[in-house]
């Protein structure tokens, strides 16, 4: 007889005993899928996540959350900016859940690049100095436009940039 069978839920607002919650967390931590545990105990996704957060061990939390170094985040951001990966492809490849995470990494990468551009020494004064200055100014303008688009996407919660593989408009 399972714990879920011993303490069935009676109504929508009824609560499970702590022992039932801890048993569900123990099953997930032992390797049973969250979906299987949700079905066994008859609870929703967010309920189980709340139980895992409240009763779960720190070892499980660290195991579930994939940690990326700054260098890895910058590499992923560069892949996105260069167009080698779309946001959806990056989510799948790196096992991430939110596009917001990717966008934050890209914004941090752009900020670090902008900082490096401001620290660069002045190019030598020769015939190409004028062109180098124009190039630097164009890069800043592009960076400003990207930042503006990022802010607009965050403020209005819409995707502005064209997605890879999108059909052209007629």
UniProtKB/TrEMBL annotation:
<dbReference type="InterPro" id="IPR002622">
    <property type="entry name" value="Transposase_14"/>
</dbReference>
<dbReference type="InterPro" id="IPR010921">
    <property type="entry name" value="Trp_repressor/repl_initiator"/>
</dbReference>
<dbReference type="InterPro" id="IPR009057">
    <property type="entry name" value="Homeodomain-like_sf"/>
</dbReference>
<dbReference type="Pfam" id="PF01710">
    <property type="entry name" value="HTH_Tnp_IS630"/>
</dbReference>
<protein>
    <recommendedName>
        <fullName>Transposase Synechocystis PCC 6803 domain-containing protein</fullName>
    </recommendedName>
</protein>
<feature type="domain" description="Transposase Synechocystis PCC 6803">
    <location>
        <begin position="16"/>
        <end position="67"/>
    </location>
</feature>
């Amino acid at each position: 007889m399972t714990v879920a069978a011993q303490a069935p839920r009676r109504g929508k607002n009824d609560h499970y005993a702590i022992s039932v919650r801890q048993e569900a967390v123990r099953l997930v931590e032992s390797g049973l899928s969250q979906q299987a545990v949700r079905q066994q105990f008859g609870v929703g996704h967010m309920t189980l996540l709340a139980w895992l957060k409240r009763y779960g061990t720190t070892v499980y939390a660290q195991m579930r959350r994939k940690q990326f170094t700054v260098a890895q985040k910058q590499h992923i951001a560069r892949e996105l900016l260069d167009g080698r990966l779309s946001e959806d492809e990056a989510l799948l490849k790196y096992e991430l859940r939110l596009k917001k995470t990717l966008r934050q990494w890209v914004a941090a990468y752009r900020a670090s690049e902008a900082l490096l551009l401001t620290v660069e020494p002045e190019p030598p004064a020769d015939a190409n100095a004028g062109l180098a200055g124009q190039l630097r100014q164009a890069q800043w303008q592009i960076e400003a436009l990207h930042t503006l688009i990022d802010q607009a996407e965050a403020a209005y919660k819409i995707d502005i940039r064209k997605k890879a593989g999108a059909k052209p408009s007629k």
